[in-house]
């Protein structure tokens, strides 16, 4: 990882370095996008709608949810409300990256709009000397992988008659890779420890809402830890 960061500082190798950073995301986005495109086409829409949705929405989990809601006949207001709840965590992502986002209006808008979990993970590990253009390129590369996977899935879904099963493990594998890369880049084990303990407690207290409760507990623990570190300094 440190060699990749050193390469980013050199314009001659920055493109290759940024591409290397996006490869783990591609390994998750392409198969997941393929499943999304396949399921969406199998629900009865035209083949070109899923890639267009991925190009204009780029919301990952919310897009999967939208397919289920549309199939169930949900209204537009219900889909909007559910999407807002699912993506509420992105507010906290954006607040923690305000000092890193470029001042240019278009680059800033695109980075805010494309702030997925995976983009956030990579952007937070980029070195301080990374330029606005390099940040935007990382986001665009990851966006490209998602659209590419969706396009592949749409093409398959338009022809196939059998559903995919067992490929959804790639999402968990993707987050595992991103977690390891975060740890390697920062050398901090506290966030991982807090997340594991929070989820264990949440699962014990409220199994049906363990993820939501653990996210809240992790946020509180992060704020307390940050204040404690500031006091120590």
Which series of helices and strands comes N to C?
Answer: HHHHHHHHHHHH
Mean pLDDT reading: 80
Beta-strand residue percentage? under 5%
Radius of gyration: 19 Å
Estimated helix fraction:
over 70%
Low-confidence stretches: 4-13
State the helix count. Answer: 12
- Give the strand tally: 0
How many separate domains? 2
Concise summary:
The protein has twelve helices and no strands. By secondary structure, the protein is an all-alpha fold.
Give the helix/strand layout.
Elements: H1 2-8, H2 11-42, H3 49-56, H4 61-71, H5 76-86, H6 89-97, H7 105-113, H8 117-123, H9 132-157, H10 169-186, H11 190-205, H12 210-232
Helix pairs in contact: 1-2, 2-9, 2-10, 3-9, 4-5, 8-9, 11-12
Give a verbal description of the structure.
The protein is an all-alpha fold and 233 residues long. 76% of the residues lie in helices and 0% in strands. The chain has helices at 2-8, 11-42, 49-56, 61-71, 76-86, 89-97, 105-113, 117-123, 132-157, 169-186, 190-205, 210-232. Helix 1 packs across helix 2 (11-42), helix 2 packs antiparallel against helix 10 (169-186) and helix 4 (61-71) runs antiparallel to helix 5 (76-86). The chain is globular and about 60 Å long. 25% of the residues are buried. Residues 4-13 have low confidence and may be disordered.
């Amino acid at each position: 990882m440190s060699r990749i960061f050193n390469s980013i500082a050199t314009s001659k190798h920055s493109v290759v370095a940024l591409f290397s950073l996006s490869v783990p995301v591609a390994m998750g986005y392409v198969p997941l996008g393929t499943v999304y495109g396949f399921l969406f086409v199998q629900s009865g829409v035209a083949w070109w709608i899923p890639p267009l949705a991925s190009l204009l929405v780029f919301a990952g989990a919310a897009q999967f949810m939208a397919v289920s809601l549309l199939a169930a006949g949900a209204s537009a207001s219900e889909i909007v409300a559910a999407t807002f709840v699912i993506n509420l965590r992105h507010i906290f992502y954006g607040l923690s990256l305000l000092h890193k986002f470029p001042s240019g209006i278009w680059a800033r808008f695109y980075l805010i709009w494309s702030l997925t979990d995976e983009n956030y993970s990579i952007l937070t590990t980029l070195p301080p000397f990374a330029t606005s253009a390099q940040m935007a390129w990382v986001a665009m590369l990851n966006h490209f992988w998602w659209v590419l996977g969706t396009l592949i899935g749409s093409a398959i879904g338009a022809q196939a008659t059998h559903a995919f099963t067992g490929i959804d493990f790639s999402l968990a594998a993707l987050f595992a890779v991103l977690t390891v890369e975060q740890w390697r880049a920062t050398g901090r084990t506290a966030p991982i420890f807090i997340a594991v303990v929070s989820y264990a407690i949440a699962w014990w207290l409220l199994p049906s809402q363990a993820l939501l409760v653990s996210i809240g507990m992790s946020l509180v623990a992060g704020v307390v830890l940050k204040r404690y570190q500031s006091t120590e300094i």
